[in-house]
Design brief:
With 81 residues, the protein is mainly α. Helices cover 74% and strands 0% of the residues. The protein contains three helices and no strands. It has helices at 2-13, 16-59, 76-79. It starts with a helix and ends with a helix.
Length: 81
């Protein structure tokens, strides 16, 4: 009960301007956190997109140099046999 009375006493000394400043600071912090979360999500999406593109390129067939028929290149160890 004593803590409650002390809290009420402290609230009497805080004026409305101070409360408004505290609320405004709270909003700024929330906005910054939301912006950081959005940035992190966009970074994650960008990384996933880049990873998918790299995987697609790695899985794409390799074509022989100068081959206009787009026939995949043969393994050189097989060709030499």
């Amino acid at each position: 009960m004593l803590n409650f009375v002390k809290a009420l006493k402290e609230m009497e000394t805080i004026d409305i301007d101070q409360i408004q400043k505290i609320i405004a600071l709270s909003h700024v912090v929330q906005e910054k956190e939301a912006a950081q979360q959005t940035k992190d999500e966009l970074d994650d999406v960008g990384r996933k997109s880049l990873l998918q593109r790299v995987q697609q390129q790695l899985n794409a067939p390799v074509y022989a140099h100068g081959n206009n028929n787009n026939i995949p290149a043969q393994n050189s160890s097989v060709m030499g046999s």
